[in-house]
Amino acid sequence: MTWVRAHAPGRVNLIGEHTDYNAGFALPIALEAGTVVDFEVGGADATIHAGSDRKPDSVAVPLDTSPSTHRVTGWGGYVAGSVWALREFGVAVPAGRMRITSTVPVGAGLSSSAALECAVLCALTAAAGAVVDRTELARIAQRAENEYVGAPTGLLDQLAALYGEPDTALLIDFRSVRVTPVPLESAGGVWLAIDSRSPHRNASGEYADRRRACERAAELLGAPSLRDVADDDWRQLADDELRRRARHVLTENRRVLDGAAALRSGDATGFGALMRASHASMRDDFEITTPAIDLIAATADRLGAYGARMTGGGFGGTVIAFAPQDAADRIAAELPDTVAAAGHPRPGCTRIRPGAGAHLLPDTEPARRTAAPPP
Ligand code: GAF
């Protein structure tokens, strides 16, 4: 009998939002919280039977599932999409039983879906005895999400889930798909994830709309992507909304590069100022924040954070605050009451640290351990 056990983390993006599908830059961390997939190979029915600690019903994924036939919907779609994309890549995925457990909150903008896809892919490649490098695995997970689940997302979440390192942020260049570690120790400070607990409003429709706007802006500027235009080319666009969408992406790319430099040199105040500017750009130019999210970010700033900004796709989710220890204590103690008193759901504050990327866990059958994604 063959068994494997794989873990993949959620992520928080420190800065660089909606830049991935524009071939730009981002600076995420992987979380310590993650998803664990236990997979036992076996069964003559050419099916993977998957159960989750969060769902009462298990899901049957036929190995020949595809977006056009045998399409699985709901949470099982992320498992099935990963099976489909991995088989399309050429890996002989075996039948078996899968048990999924997770500590990544769903719907909080912390990428529980990429954690699930990457843990499933890590387990299935190992079970198949295949070795697939991490960038390729990220592309396979993205293909599952884009073509099977139907969400037009970029590569940010999957790269963060696969390349994460403790105490380290990841500077990602989405054009070359290069990931450069940025150590976080010298900047000190505390990172707080503040979950707004406010529901997303039509987040997927709005996300697709922003992506189309960026593509249209690049097209009008005669460039393949917004990465290929000069920093102030947004001024050439006649339409006010497109100007603001492009301005967000172009200024955000610059903030990511400046932010990585600030963290490397231990400049916590400088990084915080960039986080605040990023939040304002998401609020005013890209228009992806909500009143609750804006209040959380402003309250964290008022209580002494170096900076705070929404993280992830937007329209709800989580604010990441970077703060000296005393301000972090104040934020955890006072911010939930302030936000609840304004009539919003009471947020949850959690201290986070960067964690490791996807990997096989020790209780994987020894013969399969070599099939982990190579570093
Ligand atoms: C979501 C998407 F999945 C990512 O690809 C990225 O675009 C992010 O929103 C915004 O930066 O998490």
TrEMBL record:
Keyword DNA damage assigned: no
Residues in the signal sequence: none
InterPro entries, per the entry: Galactokinase, Galactokinase_CS, GalKase_N, GHMP_kinase_C_dom, GHMP_kinase_C_sf, GHMP_kinase_N_dom, GHMP_knse_ATP-bd_CS, Mevalonate/galactokinase
Ranges where the GHMP kinase N-terminal domain occurs: 78-164
GO BP field: galactose metabolic process
Keywords: ATP-binding, Carbohydrate metabolism, Galactose metabolism, Kinase, Magnesium, Metal-binding, Nucleotide-binding, Transferase
Protein family per UniProt: Belongs to the GHMP kinase family. GalK subfamily.
Species whose genome carries this gene: Nocardia stercoris
Lineage of the species this protein comes from: Bacteria, Bacillati, Actinomycetota, Actinomycetes, Mycobacteriales
NCBIfam families according to UniProt: gal_kin (TIGR00131)
Domain Galactokinase N-terminal stretches: 6-37
EC numbers: 2.7.1.6
Gene3D superfamilies on file: 3.30.230.10, GHMP kinase, C-terminal domain
Residue ranges constituting the GHMP kinase C-terminal domain according to the UniProt record: 261-338
One MF annotation (Gene Ontology) recorded for this entry: galactokinase activity
UniProt-listed Pfam families: GalKase_gal_bdg (PF10509), GHMP_kinases_C (PF08544), GHMP_kinases_N (PF00288)
Gene name of this polypeptide: galK
A Gene Ontology term for the protein's cellular component: cytosol
Record's protein name: Galactokinase
Cell inner membrane listed as a keyword: no
Region (Disordered): 344-375
